[in-house]
Amino acid sequence: MVTIIMDSAKVVVLDIRFPTLPVVHQASVDVIAWAPHSSCHIFTAGEDSRALIRDLASMGQPEKGALDPILTYMARAEIKQH
């Protein structure tokens, strides 16, 4: 399960295999979605104008820090879900 922390740049991945692991943007997150074809890929986007895809299957141990994106797109403006 994934949740957005209100007024924060963090998305928290809740996985029973690991304690909470932050997925971090540079600004507040406005959009979050699971890939329709994969249970391991998550899409996040927000006020930092970045759209990021992460592979949760490659999630490391919590001491390694936040999960880096496998794909990044930089938009011209803030990305919002409509």
In total, the number of domains comes to 1
Going by helix content, strand content and strand pairing, the class is: mainly beta
Give the SSE order as H and E letters.
EEEEEEE
Biggest β-sheet, characterized?
A: 4 strands, antiparallel
Arithmetic mean of pLDDT: 77
What value does the Rg take, in angstroms?
A: 12 Å
Poorly predicted runs of 5 or more residues: none
Percentage of residues in strands: over 45%
Shape estimate: globular
Estimated helix fraction: under 10%
The N- to C-terminal Cα distance equals 22 Å
Number of helical segments with 4 or more residues: 0
- Give the spatial strand order of the biggest sheet: 4-5-6-7
Assembly category: single chain
- What is the total tally of β strands? 7
Could you explain how this protein is built, in words?
Keywords: Repeat, WD repeat. The structure is a single chain. The protein has strands at 2-4, 10-15, 18-24, 29-34, 41-46, 50-55, 71-74. The chain is an all-beta fold. It has one domain (2-74). The strands form 2 sheets. Strands 4-5-6-7 form a 4-stranded antiparallel β-sheet, with no helix packed on it. The protein has a 3-stranded antiparallel β-sheet with strand order 1-2-3, with no helix packed on it. It is globular. The model has no long low-confidence stretch (mean pLDDT 77).
